[in-house]
Amino acid sequence: MTDQQTEKKQGVLSSNVVMSGIRPTGMLHLGNYFGAIRNYVRMQEQYECYFMVADLHSLTTHPDTSLLKEHVKRVLAENIACGLDPDKATFYCQSHVRETGELYLYLNMLAYKGELEKTVTFKDKARLHPENVNAGLLTYPVLQTADIIIHRAGLVPVGKDQEQHLEMARNFVQRFNHRYGQIFPEPHAFNFNEALVKVPGLDGSGKMSKSENNMSTLYFADDDDTIRKKVMKAKTDAGPTEPNSPMPDYIENIFLLMHLVSEEGVIKKYQEDYNNCSIRYGDLKKQLAEDMVKFIAPIRQKADDILANDKYLVETMQKGAARASESAQKTMKLVREAIGLNYF
Ligand code: TRP
Fold first, then answer.
1. Same-domain status, 124 and 189
2. How confident is the model at residue 212 (pLDDT cuts 50, 70, 90)?
3. What is the pLDDT of residues 20-60, one digit of tens each?
4. Residues forming beta bridges with residue 251, ordered by sequence position
5. For the segment 11-31, what is each residue's pLDDT rounded down to a tens digit?
6. Would you say the CB of residue 143 lies under 6 angstroms from ligand 1?
7. Is the CB–ligand 1 distance for residue 150 below 6 Å?
8. 129 and 62 part of one domain
9. Does 112 have pLDDT greater than 50?
10. Mutation pick for ligand 1 pocket among 17, 23, 172 (CB with most ligand atoms within 8 Å)
């Protein structure tokens, strides 16, 4: 390392604060749980965590807000039902932290039109909705950066689809720090250094996702019969005819889903049945369906109980808002001083 590099490295702040955002569009599904929430639940035991419902971000693509309240409350309830603990982590709504809007404004002066226009998520959304290519959509990564650094967080548990946004966040942070002084750590994706679990869809292709195919995604709001019906519809075939045949993708996916919710011994039995060609896919799917029901039903029940208790939800939001705002106010004091907006 050259002296200059060493100096640069020493200048980089590090942070063990965790921050992530959850969009309140659509219901939570199994992919969200194994891809993200399960990690949040682990992180809240070891780190200072801020988990946020990104209600403002949703305005960039969902200007009709008639269902917003309902969606925000559902996301809160479902995440808590999955184990996110509002006493351990700060769990709040983006719109309750007004300071984020202020930081977003300052960061907008450090974000260039050209780089924003090149963002993959921007291009995708602009293509999908050419009638609503608004400036909020263009500066989505700037608001996301503000969300993260308002708590001076460095660890951001997100999936691959958010890598580019984080890279942009690091650029904005570097520009801010370079211009106004070392205030912010650079945020990085963080998932316990483990590969993220991909939850395959039930149609044998792709992964479970919010909006794509309702039949291939298991939602925490699905009732028991819906879960059974979806699992039983999963694609299979006549079964292997040669011992120890390689598995087609769609069968492998059923086993992958089993690994998430079924007991090892049960999986092993079906694996052996597959290898000696005695497997009955109907039984395999019935097993998976029942294990899914066992996994999902208590979470659904808990989410319903929370949703029925509006007082609890409101108090939870207020508690989160108070804690998140306190952290944001501390950061903004530093920011205004650093920029020179402290006239008295
Ligand atoms: N853009 C993220 C998504 O689409 C949601 C989000 C908003 C976020 N603000 C954030 C994620 C801050 C991490 C950190 O999922």
1. yes
2. low
3. 999 998 789 999 999 899 999 999 999 999 999 999 999 99
4. none
5. 688 899 999 999 998 789 999
6. no
7. no
8. yes
9. yes
10. 23
Residue 344 lies in a domain: no
3-state secondary structure of 21: strand
Domain assignment present for residue 206? The answer is no
Residue span of the structural domain in which 126 resides: 3-197+309-339
DSSP 144-171: HHHHHHTTT--EE---GGGHHHHHHHHH
* Closest to 185 (Cα-Cα) out of 197, 173, 172: 173
CATH number at residue 240: 1.10.240.10
Q: What is the DSSP string of 266-308?
A: HHHHHHHHHHTT---HHHHHHHHHHHHHHHHHHHHHHHHHHHT
CATH classification at residue 47: 3.40.50.620
Please indicate whether residue 19, judged by its CB atom, sits closer than 6 Å to ligand 1.
Answer: yes
Tell me the two tokens of residue 26. Answer: 């659509």
How are beta strands 155-156 and 90-93 bridged, if at all?
unpaired
Total of domains in the chain: 2
Same domain, 260 and 156: no
Distance between Cα 307 and ligand 1 center (Å): 24
